[in-house]
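FAQ: What does a ligand-bound record look like?

Like this one, built around 1-deoxymannojirimycin:
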Amino acid sequence: MTTPALLPLSGRRIPPLNLGPPSFPHHRATLRLSEKFILLLILSAFITLCFGAFFFLPDSSKHKRFDLGLEDVLIPHVDAGKGAKHSGIFLIHGPDEHRHREEEERLRNKIRADHEKALEEAKEKLKKSREEIRAEIQTEKNKVVQEMKIREKKPLPAVPIPNLIGTHGGDPEDNDLREKRDKIKEMMKHAWDNYRIYGWGHNELRPIARKGHSTNIFGTSQMGATIVDALDTLYIMGLHDEFRDGQKWIENNLDFSVNSEVSVFEVNIRFIGGLLAAYYLSGEEIFKIKAVQLAEKLLPAFNTPTGIPWAMVNLKSGVGRNWGWASAGSSILAEFGTLHMEFVHLSYLTGNPIYYKKVMHIRKLLQRMDRPNGLYPNYLNPRTGRWGQYHTSVGGLGDSFYEYLLKAWLMSDKTDHEARKMYDDAIEAIEKHLIRKSRGGLTFIGEWKNGHLEKKMGHLACFAGGMFVLGADGSKMDKAGHYLELGAEIARTCHESYDRTALKLGPESFKFDGAVEAVAVRQAEKYYILRPEVIETYWYLWRFTHDPRYREWGWEAALAIEKYCRVSGGFSGVKDVYSSTPTHDDVQQSFFLAETLKYLYLLFSGDDLLPLDHWVFNTEAHPLPVLHLANTTLSRNPAVR
Ligand code: DMJ
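The answer part, i.e. the structure of the complex:
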């Protein structure tokens, strides 16, 4: 889990193409004239070419024309009885000669008619406006794209689809709960409808400016990130018309053959994760096909000397590179370490082991490396295979690597013991070196930087409360009780970080320094961008403990979002959670629909909706089913050949 806010948000934006009329009539006339001139030039070149071809054509009587339906071909005519051999071609005499003159005449007429038709069409074109010509070109382009898409829809091998339990339901047992859940659904509708109106096809929405928005993680292309990220939330909320709308957009517009450089991690968790979850929930093949097409485009990112992928890859050229700000050209732990779940599913669904091999290679390489204090540093150089700076974090840059170790084990029906061991060992080191209790009794997770512990916890690290309870069962030396408690303590700390603000929404990161506890100090850390991690932890704790406080805390957060983040054009982040008059950042993040609203909805639903012994949520909250591989590892499973 890497915070987009850490990534450079600059650069890489192309100015919108201005298709509107130019402002000065004189300019417009100039454009028209030059266009006409070019068209006339092309036309005259075409006519000259045709006449030239006509006069220099070899005698057509030497060839017989065979009509093969759509394509006419000229082939040498061989009539040994009536012809005399001349220069390798047969000459024709007698009654045939007359027939061939007629044929020649017919050809001349056809060429003449074709010319006239082309001339007419060109004249018509000249009468058309620039916009009409553009529209025609666009229609032609769309036709070609459509045809390509039909060709791309190769069938994939059939595999046994896991038993999908709890894709519907979860109806709350009482009225109060039902009202709360309905309110969350209404919030989802508000977010979706406004994106539908003002940002459709763009990656995200600017709810105040009421237009599309994007960041460099999605590249320069409009990939409809919000649509793909939101699909499964729409599905489980029963918003089926909206789901179908999104599906149609994906079928007709989602194209990965674009010259655009995207974040491998973000595209994996949001797009591949989102498409796979939509596929499993709905059974619609198109989602699986798109997920596989996209995964193929990500594979070149792994072409590094070590097999540790680049952070970014150009979808068209396959050229990869790393973020300029990441320790001496390093790749990032939370990025290359957060591919496992989706890639295992891709191998399972396609029967192609390549995806599985790529992520297992990463795991093997990490296992062989020395770890300072048993900790995994956030940076690893993909050229040398050496660690970059020794920074370790359970928040940004490290977080979802640990999450995916645990979830790899859960997703394999608890058969991937290697992943479980790596998780247990990592958590042990984290507890020893990064987790502390503040003077006021709040448990927090600090960050290891340059040989000392920074007593600062990020909003992103709040997800770990949920992770600890999810991993409690099956823990080393049966410390389940301990991890349930640790998870609850993290949830309490994160709740405090919300409660100690004016808006009752948590800051991006908060300190534990002397008298300051769970409060952001620097202005640049006071923002809330609709992140899900705290609510995610409330939900896991609710599922494992059924302690009503988690529903109460979740509802507090929902009300605060509704009150301070809702605007008429959607939902927006806020810049300072300590100021009672919020300033909006004017971005509706795609993960707000994928995660924040989904976890809130699940918090007020029954446990029978997406039960956790059958589903594992990826780091973007996209549910993927547990693969019951009957105690074999994926590499020995017949589904993966
Ligand atoms: C999400 O995209 C994912 O949860 C990711 O792992 C990290 N953070 C954002 C939401 O905050």
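Follow-up question: can I read anything off the structure? Yes, for example: Residues 1, 269, 400, 460, 531-532, 591, 595, 619-620 surround 1-deoxymannojirimycin (CB under 6 Å).
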